[in-house]
């Protein structure tokens, strides 16, 4: 943010003609937005940061923005070039720049790139904006993930946190986020709509992540074997080392347990733990020389003693003809009544994070809860009307996000009775607490009766609240890019594996992409919007596979950056939802007809956009469960029926249902073929497309001998239509 913005309006109106400054600090301090200035310095960045170049002298740094590129000038500036530039001072989301109205760019020859100033993560502020700096001893909580463009990644160092931002132009793209402790070099930048906060470090390629230790983690620390009183942490290193886990109920840790000696593979069982609790832990690996490396301190959850029940509700139609375990619930215009019932079921506490709120039924429910003595805390997005807040009981304490960035506080969740094992629940999904969303637009609600998850959501809530008590602390509250990855990501809820991610800190887009890429048989999506190139490319690539035929529906197909046309061009069966009532979902379903694989549902508040990934406050759950996946499949099929894509008695390729089991199979394959009395011909093709088996099937359940079929992977089809089903013969 330009210091001059804090000066009086009278000063800002003084016209200053183009003039040479003594230094860049003089320009930053004594000139205003719209002034024309001349600055000289050495270039510290290149194309890894896009068209922007950063210029630094002995006093300060500044961003130079030429517009689209540097083609209007004699050369493209490179690191080490000495430049004199004349242009207009502008500001872009808090970042002070010279340009795009550049009038003079003079190459003065080679200069000396300044050595980076060593700072703490907390040292990134306005005084260092545009300068080359270094933070030592950095680790990345998301180590092991592939780096994708236009994304932020949290880092920690000396107990402090910060973020890096990686553009699509950066050579870090496609690299694995390092598990080594590094000395991190980069340029201090800023992205903040109100000009305050939002400081981030811009590394200029892999060379700016300098190994700081002789030992590196070659895998993230992974939690497994979760029970109410124990779990296992596992990791690997590039060199044989002794492993230790330090852990405790706070980030102070306090306890330790050894995890093997002189090995590259480490596994530690933490036992004697409390049920439904969140523990903090880090792994430390030490070489025989005494040199060691530590992972970031991360939270991990034990299994709770709660029921673990998972409830799913839709307000749109469902097609129960494909139900397997139970019929999906379509509440229609009664969605608000059901949500209200959960609200009034709370006995002690309710924490609400709601993007918008105006429904009378829910107003009454919250007021009833308050009258019953329930303590209610409420976070909302300050850009929205939230007219329902004015009708709430005076005991309900509210706290807004007010920076105006993106969609802002875009969460839709309610936490009930988090500290009470038998009563704890989390309500989330795609719906805002508005009558339009609850009654008119297509939305889903998913509810988990689980204390561990409720406590994790509470951690996120209180990071935005800024305090643990009833009263918020605005000075300590963190929203958007200021937040940290402060919650566990893995839970076992009623025997079901559930993953949890909050944006923008937790790498949500990477988690979604991994699930897309993991699809073995089916992939379906129902989205308000899809503008992330990496997710669009992942779906398109999936469609090129021999086994998966993605199908989806999108509401907003004409927004800037929409992947709709790209998906159509790639041959993906994607459909525009253009009928009454917005498709407001943000869900995808993986392998929903293939329980032998890993049926998954992805849902929450997170639109598949860069704003959701990098700016907004969002929550996403990934549920690994065949029952839940089938419930969402029933609703998705109803969407396709409403669009005229399929009929209620047909699947995507023309059959009601075809199930092959077991899969993998050895000698005898069962085929459940339901076609309203019509026979069909089953064909198995190998990966070259050669038919290795054909058999005519009658409706019902048939047994097919695989004698003579070699072990391998095959594609099953009926009457020439790919199901598609990937069949593994052992």
Question: What does this molecule look like?
Answer:
With 730 residues, this protein is mainly β. The chain has six domains: 3-110, OB fold (Dihydrolipoamide Acetyltransferase, E2P), CATH 2.40.50; 117-216, Nucleic acid-binding proteins (OB fold (Dihydrolipoamide Acetyltransferase, E2P), Beta Barrel); 222-301, Sandwich (Immunoglobulin-like), CATH 2.60.40; 310-480, Endonuclease, Chain A, CATH 3.30.870.10; 500-642, Endonuclease Chain A (Endonuclease, Chain A); 657-729, Immunoglobulin-like (Sandwich). 14% of the residues lie in helices and 37% in strands. An eight-stranded mixed β-sheet has the order 22-21-28-27-26-23-24-25, sandwiched between helices. It has an eight-stranded mixed β-sheet with strand order 29-30-36-35-34-31-32-33, sandwiched between helices. The radius of gyration is 28 Å and the shape is globular. The protein starts with 8 loop residues before the first helix and ends with a strand. The relative contact order is 0.08. Mean pLDDT is 90; it is low at 1-19 and 649-656.
